[in-house]
User: Fold GABA permease from Streptomyces laurentii.
Amino acid sequence: MGQGNGTATRRPDTGGAPAAGDTATAAGAGSGGGGGATTLARSLHSRHITMISIGGAVGAGLFVGSGVSIQQAGPGILIAYALTAAIVVLIMRMLAEMSMTRPDTGAFAVYGRLAFGRWAGFTSGWIYWIGWPLGLCVEAIATARIVHGWIPALPVWLTALAMVGLVTAVNLFSVRAYGEMEFWVVWIKVAVIALFIAVGLVAVAGLLPGTPAPGVGNLVDHGGFLPMGLGGVVIATSGAMFSFSGTEIVTIAAGEAQDAATAIRKSTRTILLRVTVFYLGSLAVIVLLLPWNSTAVGESPFAATLSHLGLRGASTVLNVVLFAAMLSTMNSQVYASSRMLFALARDRDAPSLFARVSRRGVPHTAILLTVSVAVLCLLLQVFHPTTAFSRLVSITGDTVYVTWIGIAAAHLMLGRRDRSEGLRPASGTGVWLFPWLTWATLIALLGLYAVMIVLPESRVDAVLALGFTVAVALAGLWLQRRDATPAA
Assistant:
């Protein structure tokens, strides 16, 4: 199987698409408008991939969204995030195993195509792409509001457009520019979270002057450890999954890495440590130090905790970090969505226009479409806000389940196929106890989604997300059958 060497090989089960990992020939289709380049630039180093993987796992959802999840589950949020972390680790190992032999910028959409046919890749790719322009719009407005708090004279809409323009310019310049921006911005997030956890643990131990040791009172004194029951844990799990969405970007970026195998292996080996320390560590500090049902925790759990510890200027510092986190998220949203659209166009599941590559090796047309959709949503939401937009964002958020279910299902098929051909997972990658843990992950995801449909609080969005997925899948099936039908 080729590894992006300029010759697209074909396998019978790809539906006529180039085998995963072979981006060159199809990528060059229609690229003349970009100056003659035929492939995406492979200029990301291992350090870029490592920080991209951390940035994907630690976004604005941790700093803000976790407050809503705490209100939904109480201290049981630790169960919700532990369960989600376990699923994330397994999903990432599945992706790592498939990416080691098939590094491709289309990643899991390509794996779905290889496993089940064109319709599966079509469905996975388009569902993944559609959420990113909406997410970019939301993050841009939230980032602009932070800046507006610092400089009230700047209108929110103008600042939001400026932030979108910044990340667009970075992504259009080169993939190396994207990697460098992520590298340094993620360092800020990592340093602050590590410091937060360290200070919090000192306070929990009763060693911080002026802050008595809380013991376990906040875990059990306000309605018990599960004040909202298991239903609250399930709903919070959905929010946790949305927070973790973005971890898969590392396998998309691997398609543009100079040494994909080393980059994937390194990021996979540290995923368990990252999600445990950054998420479970910080959330444990919060629910140990503060009552879960306090208004301040629901609004901004990190700021509430820092204020409780008597750290002056905590809100200002946190806003700076939150700004950096959101800028990092926006940067990755443009990157991931453009690469997925590029892969869809390359595999003839989107107009060939979006497979064009600039002289710098970036899919500029795919970037511009994604950003254009985001800007349109942004302007509509700023000048004509509607609750329908929030509903749409929630629906696309639920499709994270669809993406992960598709990854697990593809791993079952491709994992068996690879093992039957004598291919074993590289050291440090692959799912343990295959296929049992893959089956367990798939069943857990399906079960959680079924519970979301049953619970009245999440039923509407879950059903609408399922309906949207079915509609896209039917479109993919129609396209597959149309192209498979011999011409008269």
Summary: The mean pLDDT is 81. The two ends are 34 Å apart (CA to CA). The chain has 19 helices and no strands.
